[in-house]
Backbone:
């Protein structure tokens, strides 16, 4: 029987989701925990890769299990797992349902704090700055939905079969104190480091280091990236995964925070 596991994790202590030699990953920790419970190795097929230090407010993986358990598996698994990984739900799905290949939309959110806060350092990126022109940054976000070829926003476009992405939604928000920023983007797929490159360029627009015309020109000319850095990984969160047969809202408290649209 195939099961979907609905989970979330803080990625600060992990080298991403996917199992790697000589590095601790979320997949490895979960598979080890399932082995303790079932007494055998259980393969976990994730909905996608996340980079080192990147978080997942919502993540799905599937596993094929033959066991019929008569106990609360969610409770037992959460007891075995470390505090930075949580299981929200486990439910049976069709045998052909695939955590990665069946997904139709992925939403990521990138968190920035502009004043130093040690309690945010693991889950948000610090960019000290004053007088950011967030209205311009919000207009840059609107440009993202107009184009489909994101080669210039990819760290290694040659490693992809193609660089076309359907970006359905892009939004910039701030908190009430105006010292935290949240960038949200939804698409059918994302290229390597695509979101973190976009964030760096949006910040450049906010600082008036890059004009809106120059920002859009990257799409029009498809020129190679002139940015040598990408945004810090700890600010990036996989926020939501959607399937034709499944649309579950995120469960973490952060998703209920009050955010306000930036006026363009």
Residues:
């Amino acid at each position: 029987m195939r099961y979907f596991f609905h989970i979330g994790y803080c990625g600060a202590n992990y080298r991403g989701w996917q199992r790697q030699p000589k590095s601790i990953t979320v997949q490895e920790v979960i598979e080890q925990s399932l082995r303790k419970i079932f007494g055998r190795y259980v393969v976990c097929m994730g909905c996608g890769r996340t980079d080192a230090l990147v978080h997942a407010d919502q993540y799905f993986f599937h596993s094929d299990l033959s066991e019929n358990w008569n106990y609360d598996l969610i409770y037992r698994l959460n007891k075995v797992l470390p505090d930075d990984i949580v299981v929200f739900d486990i439910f049976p799905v069709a045998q052909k349902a695939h955590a990665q290949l069946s997904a139709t939309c992925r939403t990521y959110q990138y968190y920035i704090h502009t004043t130093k806060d040690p309690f945010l350092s693991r889950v948000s990126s610090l960019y000290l700055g004053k007088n950011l022109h967030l209205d311009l940054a919000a207009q840059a976000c609107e440009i993202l939905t107009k184009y489909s070829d994101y080669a210039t926003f990819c760290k290694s476009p040659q490693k992809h079969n193609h660089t076309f992405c359907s970006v359905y939604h892009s939004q910039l928000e701030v908190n009430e104190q105006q010292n935290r920023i949240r960038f949200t983007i939804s698409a059918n797929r994302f290229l390597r480091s695509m979101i973190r490159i976009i964030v760096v360029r949006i910040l450049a627009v906010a600082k008036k280091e890059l004009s809106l015309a120059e920002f859009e020109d990257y799409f029009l000319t498809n020129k190679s990236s002139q940015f040598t850095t990408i945004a810090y990984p700890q600010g990036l969160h996989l926020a939501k995964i959607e399937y034709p047969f499944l649309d579950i809202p995120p469960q973490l408290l952060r998703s209920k925070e009050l955010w306000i649209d930036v006026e363009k």
User: Anything to note?
Assistant: The first strand starts at residue 2 and ends at 9. DSSP finds five helices and ten strands in the chain.
